[in-house]
Structure formats: C-alpha cells, structure tokens
Amino acid sequence: LAGWWLVAASRAQQLPRPSLSLHPSQGVSLGDTVTLCCHLPQPTARVELYQEEKLRSSKEMDQEHDVAEFSLAGIKQEDAVRYQCQYQGLEPVGTSEKSDPVELLVTDHRYPPPGISLGPREYVEMETNITIQCWNQEYGGTIFLHKDGHSAPIQHQEPDGGGTATFILFGVTPADSGTYRCSYHVGAPTFCDSVTASLIH
Q: Taken in order 115, 120, 121, 126, is the CA torsion positive or negative?
C-alpha cells in the first residue's frame, strides 16, 4: 500500500509536457531563418531545445513568458531533422518530459518537387479506401507522405522502379480529411514539398 501511494504521488508531481511549433512550418528553403517556439504550460526557469536528442540551445526564462523562441538562421541541409523542447519547472521543481518532436522540412530547389495524385477522386465517401501516389522521376531516395497538422510524416516508402510510391488510406473517416503533401529524401536530408491534394468528405 505504501509503495502504491509513493507511485501515485510521484505521478501527481509530473510536470505537464511543453509543445513545440515551427514558424514558418512549410515552404522553408536553404538559407532561410526558422523560429522554433516552445509553448510552456507553467512558469519556467530554463528551456532547452534538442536536435535529434542532442542539446542544441538553452535559454533562461522570465516567469511572465509562456513561450520560448529559438531562431535558426541560414538553414542548411543538416538542419532538416527533428526537434524537441524541455523545461525546468519552478513549482513543482523538476524537469519536464520532452515535447512531441517536430520535423523541419527544407526545400532544396536544386531538385524538382515530386508529383502527387489522389484517387479515385478529390471528393470521397466515408469508409472507402483512398490511394495517394507520389513520384520523383529518376531521383530515387525515400518518399514521405505528410498531412498538414502532423509534425512528422504519416507514411514513407521506397519508390518502385518508376520512381513512384503508392500510399493507401484504408476506410477513411472525417479525421482523414485534410491536405496531404509528398516529399523525398535524397542522400543528405534534402526535402522537397509537392503540390497538395485535399481530401473532403
């Protein structure tokens, strides 16, 4: 019983997780400046920004602010990775868990954008299967499918011999409605956004 009480008390003291957002969240090109905003649920002494699990930057905080901003200037290919933030709480004292990761997608204009198509058509009925095809001609690499509002790709595939990846959404529901994008990763972390396809029920 005593052990159970200690576990329950420990869980009650856990700090709420922060959240992280990118500005701008799309259309970032090599050389641009991106701001990462760590949204804090309570007064905080210090905020840390992590790049692929490694500490990238930290900032001492004024208790009156609930957002910590980190600017990345002159974006390079190696910056196209996942980021998380974490904070040191004041009351209760402790360290929060890291935020959900967000992925910085960088468009390299040396490569053409991939193509995207939605089938059977743009307007679909609930509980049907939807096919989204993405292609990048002869460039190869892994092709990613993104949905606006999600910080990470929802699916990824190696393209077939014709450079096409076929993604299937089974039994779609209203939650699947939205805008989808394709990108591809060639060698270094190079991402290229495509045009969008909107799914409406």
A: negative
